């Protein structure tokens, strides 16, 4: 625990130092801020790429071993059903909270934003136009395992790993023991690598934060104060609901879980990447007492189907854009939008800036000007910090809850 506390303190220190340095560069050396941001961001890029390097082999090895060791296909189906019920319920709750609070607080009616250049959103708009049911199916089912590995398509790796693990479990333990043992060794070796890579996290946090503060400065918070205030208030309500449910299921062990995942939460907040903490989250949930087979099965699924912070942001941002343009959406239409977002958002975790892509697609479907996405782009990085941290919390609670329901949560 001493080593963990040292890392946590180092990340906090890097976060503060990054904000200070970024602010100094923005105010004192405005002509150099773009070049500075481009160079210092490389520290964050190094950390993210180190993590991305081990995600695919970790998901594959842990998931195959977990399912093969279960041996009981009925248990796989039972655990998977419980996980999907949690994911669907959590998604509906997240979307509903975003919808209710954006209608109650009405940030789009009281916020005065500067006119943004719509060209800044052109890439996101173009990405959303091609999204269809065909793309959705292609995104889930891998054409090649090696392609899925190369592009870190977690959901595709999960699909192959589940089928491969079930096939191994059906072939008999005597026949498959060497393969399972080899993959188990690989999984433990990768988790050992996680311990080394996490000490690069403070540098990654420092680079990511100082780059964004140097580029945007502190003035951006004044312009978007109402939008940020209302969004983070909505996130706080979502956290309150999740923690209340977590306490009902886990009891006082909820506080132990929060202590365990404090580093993953902080890293996700600082780097705006819930993917960056996946290996560390696997490790901490197993230390918390969750069954390793359940962790290796549910967590990869959660990273594709259970992005609660991103879900809440979708309804919040979509209605906010409508409010900015003075578009009054009836309640029935908003509920239809919620259901559309619920369906279209599943399984696109690998799409860059997935939340914004889905928001643009939804806006186009409900006659809301899609160029309105340019209004929230300048502050999206800071919203993404809250979204990513909430995604991590939601997946940690889902895995712990299913482990408890299966009687597989150890003290």
UniProtKB/TrEMBL annotation:
Pfam families noted in UniProt: SDF (PF00375)
Annotated localization: Cell membrane
Membrane disposition: Multi-pass membrane protein
Gene Ontology annotations of biological process type: dicarboxylic acid transport
GO cellular component, one term: plasma membrane
Source organism, top-level taxon: Bacteria
Transmembrane segments: 46-71, 83-105, 154-172, 193-214, 226-250, 331-349, 356-379
GO molecular function: symporter activity
Keyword annotations: Cell membrane, Membrane, Symport, Transmembrane, Transmembrane helix, Transport
Name this protein carries in UniProt: Na+/H+-dicarboxylate symporter
Source organism of this protein record: Epilithonimonas mollis
